[in-house]
């Protein structure tokens, strides 16, 4: 994995995803991106300065169709507590560098696995796609694949408006453009921000104003812009404010909610913003006072997020956890705001190291949320699972997952290799296990769980239970938190490849004390299908899904690979129509090859994703990519008589 040099942030929330010098003549796209696009046709994720944003329209931006998220935000499901210190009160906001650069980010993935695909969504309540650079752009919506990845897990994602400190290229004129009202009483930049969020399909904006040189009047103007956006935004969108600018117009980080910054959060019992990220200067007394001030103002103190900087040291960071989280059973003083948990990726030496770091960061040393860390000091890393119950986006049928992380070095379909070569498309990431990992062995088994990228049923990864087994040993794996009501035609099925085991489904129904074990029937070879009807449980609500595996032989290197889990019926799958109006815009590269922008009309029915095929040199259909979107950029496409031969197929459940 490529090591990324990051700029440490100690006192202010000032981070640059590019270290380019400030530009006096900035454009909506850097000259480098313009040259790349002219040469290759590559669509890029958007970034703007205020004046460029005012000129933007999806009708005139050829990249716009590639930057739209397509998966709606799923309803969030809260699990029962996995340990006694978790609390359902309080939230976790993650400010994370999902894309390494502000500029130069392909709209929906590219041919590489060198990309940060977070998979631990079960503790995140809001994702801020953090980015911004005085030399590239300060208004950055989340990329389309980020929107789809987060939404699939029920996590809202917001873009960033970043007014940098002057010393790092911040320009007062950018702030002035943002707070300027036109002759009709409108704020044109704010209107464009809302237009972008609505068109691209994400959930609001994080406003970070750290440029100096303003007065109390400017502060009031900024507050008025926030109120204007509150009045016009979609009800489900959020405007998040960073603790920086105060009522005097100065940049004066408070590390608290107080009279200097509360007007940016609420006025006269009306929301000005939907939450505030508290600067890292907080201390226990300031957080207690912030809780009291929020309560007095009629705002939930859990809409305040105490910033914890983990960019430099990750789980080696010293954090005064007890200042945020009092003893078990009590609500947190305020919510938690993590700054750059992507440390787990950017400081990893390879993919395996990334996975290990991600597991430890979120789930602690034992990688099991039932066992929070036993530490000696209040500032030692606790593991995020200690404080927040697991959550998922599984609230309705159908459910199908192949445990695909959204990147890989191949792509399988139904166990057959259709594509080789590195790729990433975060929107193709499947729902991962809610619990990382709750697994119990008895009877001599010592299996452990992981997400493995060496084999897959469909996609490029699968859930693997590996280790030693005994004859008639059992391994119970808790998989998903759900809120699914069983229908008359609901069935359960899973595809398993193992070295000797039988399997039962375990369902925890709402209102029932004990879970039910359901016998599964096996059919086929290789990837064996284990299935059952759930019609006897019609009308019941499934709260948890687990799997019990009984091993048939003693082995020192046993493997149970789960390639697919599906919970659905015919009424859920429904009809999937054919793809129509496929348009291919080509950019000629070397002879007999082309790059192609491909768009099509969204197919009717319950579409899971699309497969894009080319006719290759042998005249055969060859898979060149997959996406949940209705737009795809392909490189090195084979041409027939100077034209690419492209077919797009809609894939259902």
Automatic annotation (TrEMBL):
Coiled-coil positions: none
Keyword terms of this UniProt record: Signal
A GO molecular-function descriptor: mannosyl-glycoprotein endo-beta-N-acetylglucosaminidase activity
Pfam family, one: Glyco_hydro_85
Source species, domain of life: Bacteria
GO cellular component terms attached to this protein's record: cytosol
Domain Cytosolic endo-beta-N-acetylglucosaminidase TIM barrel positions: 108-410
Keyword Hydrolase in record: no
Annotated ranges, domain Endo-beta-N-acetylglucosaminidase D-like D2: 580-649
Signal peptide range in chain numbering: 1-28
Protein name, entry field: Endo-beta-N-acetylglucosaminidase D
Organism per entry: Listeria rocourtiae
UniProt lineage: Bacteria, Bacillati, Bacillota, Bacilli, Bacillales
């Amino acid at each position: 994995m490529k090591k990324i040099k990051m700029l440490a942030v100690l006192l202010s929330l000032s981070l640059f995803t590019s270290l380019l010098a400030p530009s006096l003549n900035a454009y909506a796209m850097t000259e480098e991106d313009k040259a790349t696009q002219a040469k290759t046709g590559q669509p890029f994720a958007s970034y703007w300065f205020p004046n460029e944003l005012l000129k933007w329209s999806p009708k005139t931006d050829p990249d716009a169709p590639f930057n739209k998220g397509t998966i709606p935000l799923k309803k969030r499901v809260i699990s029962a507590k996995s340990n006694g210190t978790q609390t359902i009160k309080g939230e976790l906001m993650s400010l994370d560098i999902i894309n390494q650069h502000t500029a130069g980010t392909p709209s929906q993935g590219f041919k590489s696995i060198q990309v940060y695909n977070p998979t631990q969504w079960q503790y995140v309540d809001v994702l801020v796609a953090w980015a911004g650079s005085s030399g590239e752009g300060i208004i950055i919506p989340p990329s389309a694949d980020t929107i789809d990845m987060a939404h699939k897990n029920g996590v809202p994602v917001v873009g960033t408006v970043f007014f940098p400190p002057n010393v790092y290229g911040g320009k007062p004129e950018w702030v002035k453009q943002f707070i300027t009202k036109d002759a009709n009483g409108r704020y044109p930049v704010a209107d464009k921000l809302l237009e972008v969020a609505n068109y691209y399909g994400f959930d609001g904006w994080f406003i970070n104003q750290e440029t100096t040189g303003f007065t109390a009047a400017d502060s009031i103007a900024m507050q008025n812009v926030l109120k204007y956006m509150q009045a016009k935004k979609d009800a489900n969108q959020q405007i998040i404010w960073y603790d920086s600018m105060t009522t005097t117009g100065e940049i004066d980080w408070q590390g608290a909610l107080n009279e200097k910054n509360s007007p940016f959060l609420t006025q006269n019992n009306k929301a000005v913003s939907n939450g505030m990220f508290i600067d890292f200067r907080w201390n226990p007394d300031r957080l207690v006072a912030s809780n009291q001030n929020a309560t007095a103002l009629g705002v939930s103190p859990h809409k305040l997020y105490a910033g914890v900087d983990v960019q430099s040291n990750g789980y080696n960071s010293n954090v005064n956890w007890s200042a945020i989280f009092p003893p078990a059973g009590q609500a947190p003083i305020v919510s938690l705001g993590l700054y750059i948990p992507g440390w787990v990726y950017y400081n990893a030496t390879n993919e395996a190291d990334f996975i290990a770091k991600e597991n430890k960061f979120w789930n602690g040393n034992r990688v099991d949320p039932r066992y929070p860390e036993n530490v000696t000091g209040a500032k030692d890393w606790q593991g995020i699972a200690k404080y927040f119950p697991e959550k998922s986006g599984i609230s309705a049928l159908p459910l199908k997952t192949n445990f695909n992380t959204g990147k890989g070095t191949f792509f399988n379909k139904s166990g057959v290799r259709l594509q080789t070569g590195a790729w990433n498309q975060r929107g193709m990431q499947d729902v991962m296990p809610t619990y990382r990992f709750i697994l119990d062995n008895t009877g001599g088994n010592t299996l452990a769980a992981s997400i493995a990228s060496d084999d897959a049923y469909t996609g490029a990864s699968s859930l693997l239970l590996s280790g030693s087994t005994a004859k008639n040993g059992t391994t119970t794996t808790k998989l998903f938190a759900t809120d699914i009501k069983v229908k008359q035609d609901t069935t359960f099925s899973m595809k398993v490849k193992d070295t000797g085991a039988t399997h039962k489904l375990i369902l925890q129904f709402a209102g029932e004390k004990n879970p039910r074990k359901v016998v599964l029937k096996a059919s086929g070879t290789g990837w064996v299908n284990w299935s059952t009807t759930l019609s006897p449980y019609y009308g019941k609500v499934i709260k948890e899904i687990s799997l019990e595996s009984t091993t048939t032989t003693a082995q020192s290197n046993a493997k149970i690979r789960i390639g697919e889990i599906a919970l659905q019926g015919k009424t859920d799958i429904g009809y999937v129509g054919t793809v129509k109006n496929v348009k291919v815009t080509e950019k000629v590269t070397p002879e007999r090859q082309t790059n192609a922008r491909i768009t099509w009309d969204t197919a009717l029915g319950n579409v899971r994703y699309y497969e894009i095929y080319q006719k290759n040199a042998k005249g055969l259909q060859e898979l060149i990519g997959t996406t949940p979107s209705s737009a795809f950029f392909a490189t090195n496409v084979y041409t027939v008589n100077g034209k690419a031969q492209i077919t797009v197929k809609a894939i259902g459940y």
